[in-house]
Amino acid sequence: MSLTTQWSRIEQMQGEEAAAAAWQWFVERYRDFVAATLRRIVWDVGRAAAATDEFWGYLFQHEIVGRLRRGMRFRSFLITTLRNYALDWLRRNPRPAAEDPTALERATTTLLAEEEEMAIWTRQIVHLALQRLEREHHRHAHVLRAFYGVAAKPDAEPPAPRAASAIADEHDLTDNALHQLLFRARARLRECVVEEVRQTVSTRGDLDGELALLTQALVRTMPGLM
User: How far is the C-alpha of 226 from the C-alpha of 188, rounded, in Å?
Assistant: First the structure.
């Protein structure tokens, strides 16, 4: 497997000559995923927002990204980092005992189950893949979001799926033409998803493993989309 853009950019974030542009790319790419994951662990919306704001400084100050190497699965690294950070943040920012005396204990024992981790990660990958598709074929991305009820951001509440007839009317298509367009759009989205996952691994075996997990999560969370 050829080396990927993501790993090259991550390496630009490491060391004393860390590139600001690479850090900006990283934050913009994973901000929504970090926010969604920390909200699930911390629960309280205001506290989760504060934890999210501090996370990027934590990464930089402790040189966490410097520990990331090609050959590692990026998803596992990022989720483990978020778990460790969330527990550290909760210890440093405890609620008053009278308000919630068991908050830290509950957070320690109810960290994300693997199925929920994959659901959040799957929404992130689909979001990135749809952004890629939208840059190529705006209408393809639009009709997929409308027909399957996909949120504009991975951590947002998904809208209700729209009727095929309404989408067809909006785009001046027959029902048959719309379904042909949806077929092509799903096929290209699958390719975009594979490309997004490919950028987070370094071997064919890891790619196949990550795609298998993501496919299972898609069946549960976004049935029919791919």
Answer: 10
Packed helices 175-198 and 114-136: angle between N→C axes, nearest 10 degrees? 120
34, two tokens? 């970090």
Residue 190 has a pLDDT of 95
| Each residue's pLDDT tens digit, 114-151 | 788 888 999 999 999 999 999 999 999 999 999 999 99
Both tokens of 76, joined, read 């596992």
Cα–Cα distance, 68 to 10 (Å, whole number): 8
Buried b (16+ CB within 10 A) or exposed e, 141-169: bbbbbbbbebeeebbeeeeeeeebeebbe
For residue 61, the number of C-alpha atoms closer than 13 Å in the C-beta half-sphere is 6
Instruction: For residues 28 and 35, give the distance between their C-alpha atoms in angstroms, rounded to a whole number.
Output: 12
Residues with Cβ < 8 Å from 177, sequence gap 6 or more?
168
In single-letter form, the type of residue at position 23 comes to W
Tokens coding 105: 């204990």
